[in-house]
């Protein structure tokens, strides 16, 4: 689904001593099928922004358009339930929201609430378990018997069970070890391509934004600071530094290489192996 933010502002606790302007005149478009990373340091407005994607929050002014749905202040959004079915949100630490006695019931909870029949849900479950790499034998176990990483996969399975068109991921790897982080991100990347999803990833990892996203939006104090292709955004070291963001490791490495050896390699999402080959070749003869 295409998504548009048109001059969106959001103010918390209007007309109170705690009034806070969290989003300020945000304008951007996300095309159906894009993988977009939203980055910015703490308090820049990322969580506020994504809560506008399924109508948990509404703009104080401006409008958000998501497919055929429109969110606008003082206007009742037609069929908000339909919007919440289409936009799946994986919140931070989603495993904290597990509550059913069995894994199967937890995965089925969302679609059941939205009126899907038992047969429909049963038909979806094996494919979802495969996607999140959980064993079918676990279905009747309590989610609370699992490891933290497995619990997160159950919670993600519950969101996927709704078969959303748009997947919103709020720091989906927070608290996982490096291997778990990569497994989860690779899983989302695969799902994104296989299911033709529109994916919106909030992350503190510049490396993940560079590796997985085809578009990056940087927020600073509720405003859009930079927007574009990751390989164009993440070479702007001085501008990133101004908002306390780092250059991803791969790009930092190529910048150091240029400084030390005068070797210029333009980063175009090459793998580490391809970069190593290019460097060896340039150094003369693959040693
Ligand atoms: N309910 C609220 N009432 C008042 N201010 C709020 C409320 N929720 C968030 N804020 C403020 O809005 C600003 C943006 O918060 P938000 O959670 O969107 O930022 P963020 O970029 O997601 O931060 P983080 O990376 O820490 O999750 C922060 O300064 C925050 O304190």
TrEMBL record:
Its main location: membrane. It comes from the Bacteria. It is a peripheral membrane protein. GO terms for cellular component: ATP-binding cassette (ABC) transporter complex. The keyword Translocase applies. Its EC number is 7.-.-.-. SUPFAM superfamilies: P-loop containing nucleoside triphosphate hydrolases. It is found in: Cell membrane. It is an enzyme of class 7 (translocase). ATP-binding (A) component of a common energy-coupling factor (ECF) ABC-transporter complex. This is Energy-coupling factor transporter ATP-binding protein EcfA2. It comes from Halolactibacillus alkaliphilus. The lineage of its organism: Bacteria, Bacillati, Bacillota, Bacilli, Bacillales. The gene is ecfA2.
């Amino acid at each position: 689904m295409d998504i548009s933010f048109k001059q969106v502002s959001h103010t918390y606790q209007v007309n109170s001593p705690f009034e806070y302007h969290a989003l300020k005149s945000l304008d951007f478009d996300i095309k159906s099928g894009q993988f977009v990373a939203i980055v910015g340091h703490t308090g820049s407005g990322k969580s506020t922004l994504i809560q506008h994607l399924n109508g948990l929050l509404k703009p104080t002014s401006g409008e958000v358009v998501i497919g055929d749905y429109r969110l606008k202040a003082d206007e009742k959004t037609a069929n908000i339930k339909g919007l919440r079915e289409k936009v799946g949100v994986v919140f931070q630490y989603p495993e904290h929201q597990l509550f059913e006695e069995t894994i199967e019931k937890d995965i089925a909870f969302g679609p059941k609430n939205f009126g899907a029949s038992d047969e429909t849900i049963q038909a979806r479950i094996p494919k979802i378990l495969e996607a999140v790499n959980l064993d079918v034998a676990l279905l009747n176990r309590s989610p609370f018997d699992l490891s933290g990483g497995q619990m997160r996969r159950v919670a993600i399975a519950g969101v996927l069970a709704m078969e959303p068109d748009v997947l919103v991921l709020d720091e989906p790897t927070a608290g996982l070890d490096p291997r778990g982080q990569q497994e989860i991100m690779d899983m989302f990347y695969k799902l994104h391509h296989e299911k033709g999803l529109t994916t919106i990833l909030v992350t503190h990892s510049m490396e993940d934004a560079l590796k997985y996203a085809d578009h990056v939006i940087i927020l600073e104090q509720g405003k859009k600071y930079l927007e574009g292709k990751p390989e164009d955004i993440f070479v702007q070291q001085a501008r990133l530094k101004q908002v306390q963001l780092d250059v991803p490791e791969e790009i930092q490495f190529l910048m150091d290489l240029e400084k030390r050896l005068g070797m210029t390699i333009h980063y175009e999402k090459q793998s580490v192996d391809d970069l190593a080959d290019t460097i060896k070749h340039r150094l003369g003869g693959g040693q």
